[in-house]
Amino acid sequence: MRYFRKKTGARGFTLLEVLVAVAILAIAMVAILKANVQSLDTLTRSRETSMASLLAASKLAEVEAAGVANWNELQGDFAEDHSDYSWEVETSSTEVEGLFRVAVTVQRSGAAPGRGVRIEELLFAQ
Question: How many Å is the Cα radius of gyration of the chain?
C-alpha cells in the first residue's frame, strides 16, 4: 500500500495571496487615476487663465490705442475667435488730472464668479 505524503514547501500562490495582491493593485490604480484627473483639471484651469490673461492684455491695449477719453464700450465678448470669453472695462478718474485707472476683467462664460482675470493700469487721457 502506498501512502501519499503531503508536500511541504509547495510552490505557487494561494488564493488569499492573489486576492491581496489584486486589492493592492486596485488601490494603487485608483490613486494613479485620481492624480491624473487632478492633473488634467489643473492643466485646463491653467490654459483658461493664460488665455484670459492674453485676452485682457489685448483689450487693455485696444483701450490704450483708442484713448481712455474715446473709449465708450463697457462690456462684450471676443467675437468668433473666443466667443466663450467675455470682457468688462471699468474706468475711473484719479486725483491727478487726466490720469485714469483702467481695469479690464476677462472671464470665461459659465465659469464660477471670481475665476476671471483682472488687469489694471493707469493711463493718461489723450
Answer: 31
| Torsion of the alpha carbons at 63, 64, 70 and 72, rounded to the nearest 10 | 20
With the C-alpha atoms ordered 100, 122, 59, 109, is the resulting torsion angle positive or negative?
negative
Domain boundaries, the chain: 15-124
Residues in Cβ contact with 67 at an 8 Å cutoff, skipping those fewer than 6 apart: 125, 126
Sign of the torsion angle spanned by Cα atoms 35, 38, 42, 43: positive
Q: Judge contact between 70 and 63, C-beta under 8 A.
A: no
Question: 99 with 40: CB under 8 angstroms?
Answer: no
User: What is the model's pTM?
Assistant: 0.72
Question: CATH says 15-124 is which class?
Answer: alpha beta
Q: What is the pLDDT of residues 17-62, one digit of tens each?
A: 999 999 999 999 999 999 999 999 999 889 999 999 999 999 999 9
- C-alpha distances (whole Å) from 125 to each of 32, 67, 94, 103 are 55, 6, 11, 15
Sign of CA dihedral 68, 70, 72, 77: negative
